[in-house]
Amino acid sequence: YTLCRGNIMAMNPQWCQPVSVWKNYFQQWVTTATPGEILDINIFFDFRCAYGDEGLVETLRTHVKSLTTGNNSLFVYLTQGILNVSPSFVSSGSNDLIDIKLGLRPIIDAARAYSILHGIHATGTIERLKTLFQKGMISNSLQRDLLYAFQYAMRLRILHQIRLFEANTPPDNIIKDDELLEYDRIILKRIVQTIKTMQSKISLDSKGT
Question: Are the C-beta atoms of residues 105 and 88 closer than 8 Å to each other?
Fold first, then answer.
């Protein structure tokens, strides 16, 4: 793994803090977040215990849940970026390049935003989507479409990275268009339509809140 360009790493003293400081971080992000801090929100709301005292994680999770559950203003804030983009897998650098990570971001961000609003602890996109359906927050058809979209695109991404790894090339998320089957292109276009459907729901829910 390469080092994080944004320095979101344990070697950064800013992120090596006691629970009390982390509570203040989340308090600030939830109440007075600037557009530049939205990235921090999207990264750190996915926190989970990898090693050590699980109780520290649960303490922070309880605090965050009290700040965010039912926080309609935060939901609107988190989803503005999703609504303001035209969904696409085409890389901004070239029409001949497919950016899987870019294309999947609206699904990942939407699953996170709805989970934060409804106090769902899951941190994985698949688990979040399934839980949102179980709680009646999204329809069964939308859940199925989003799960298929996410898993299909992730499969393309992983196969692409395996090919690069076998060629002793650093893995990335950018696939050349001519590496795709015509079937893949059709599915990716269908995924874009699914994301647009999801955006319509977010728009309605935002107006409702």
Answer: no
